[in-house]
Amino acid sequence: MGKDDIVKLLLKGERITLEAKLAEREVPKSIWGTYSAFANTIGGTILLGVEEHRQEKDPAKRYEIHGVEDADRIKKDFWNTINSNKVSQNILQDDDLEVMQMDGKVIIRIRVPQASWRVKPVYLNENVYKNSFKRNHEGDYHCTIDQVKAMIRDSNDDGNDGLLMEHYGMDDIDPDSLRQYRSEFREENQDHVWNKYDDKTFLKSFGGYVVDRETGKEGLTLAGLLMFGTGLAIRERLSNFRMDYVDMSHLVGDERYHDRLTYDGRWENNLYQFLHLVIPKLTLDLPRPFRMPKLKREDDTPQLKAVREAFANAIIHSDVFLSGGVLRIDKYDDRLCLRNPGSLKLPIEQIYEGGTSRARNPRMQNMLRMIGYGENLGSGFPLILTAWKDAGWGEPVLKNKVEIDEVELELPIKTKNAPVNAPVNAPVNAPVQLSKTQKMILPIIQANKYVTYEELANTIGVDRTTIMRNIGTMKKKGVIERVGGDKSGHWEVLLDISHLNS
């Protein structure tokens, strides 16, 4: 890092990754909390010999360079301390500490990388629960007990989802979910020996059920319970974790959302059912050259495959033990947003590059992979990036929201486009084939151009999703269009009824 890089860093003033300390004659005691915080969050740079004026709004005046008086002694004291029991782990290399000249003064630059998930949490004074720190835009703060436990869980090479759920067995499995999964597995792996196993042995093969040889205890693992368990059993054991899907696309009038899937007693509240109920809703409006009879096909589009990959990633990287953890999927007119509880185990740059995978829930990852969901070789996120680039939909954005222990993936979309290689609107006078439902929708819109989806559904006697799907088809065929915004706009019919084929 050169002088110009330091200047840019100071002007940017991104406090979550930058800490300035006066440190004229000695290593400041507060440096170790910052070291722990940077290591446990996303890394950062410490500048010794630089004073920060936090009340200054002008970035050019916020940092003042004073320099240090005895750089060699400070450097020696720093290395002696970091290699003592003051900190739990020294994660620095020699070139991470550099003595530099700035404006004729000597400063010390210390680069602290994000610590490997295997050594987190990095803590002070041999007290992991009281002296582990994290970083936010306000500075260093003590980790909560939950945050420390989360980092300890993540340091396990075996992942989180192999934990034996004592007192939860095959009676807590939803038989329909497991039967549906086994049918999918059989279709994808027709000659696999596991197809011959009984349900318990089948789950054992995946790590969904385990027998502890030392204690003799046996039961479902976290993976088995979350993927195939009954909603009641899951809520009893993991009352802090929930799944939520909210569709905020195609809103009309004062609607806040028009479709939501959360626990309401009408579906079995496990991850397998959540995945299969939400994927069709999530991909309904994505441009495609055909309509898929199933959730996946070998010849479906790269974008649909990427959405499934993103959904699988959200599941396999969720830390379901975090307090208030929510696996949430949101759909908007211009984007899809997938959120999961927990922080990224790997640096975000490494995830963008691909080639490395560290799933928090490797057993769930394998369960999904065996029915065609998710990659386990670190190629999943590059696959998503490539699919979106090829479609010209903008770049997906992955956010590591460390302040709230959440990861968010935003996928920009263009749902108003027609299918690939198809015209946006058919000629006005061309024959158009409409379904029975679409023929019922058209005169209602002609009579009331401000009609809502709810009113259409109630009048025709179908659900709202059916109305949305048919409206989307009619727009693509050039029969109707939406004029103005979702709340204040109206419908216009582009095709006269006399042009319809019976």
The end-to-end distance, rounded to whole angstroms, is 72 Å
CATH topology of the largest domain: Heat Shock Protein 90
Shape: globular
Low-confidence stretches: 416-429
Just give the CATH class of the largest domain: Alpha Beta
Tally of DSSP helical segments: 17
Assess the beta-strand content as a share of residues.
15-25%
Into which percent range does the helicity of residues fall?
25-40%
How many beta-strand runs?
A: 20
CATH 2nd-level architecture of the largest domain: 2-Layer Sandwich
Q: How many strands, which pairing sense, and closed or not: the largest β-sheet?
A: 6 strands, mixed
Q: Reading side by side through the largest sheet, how are the strands ordered? A: 12-11-13-14-16-15
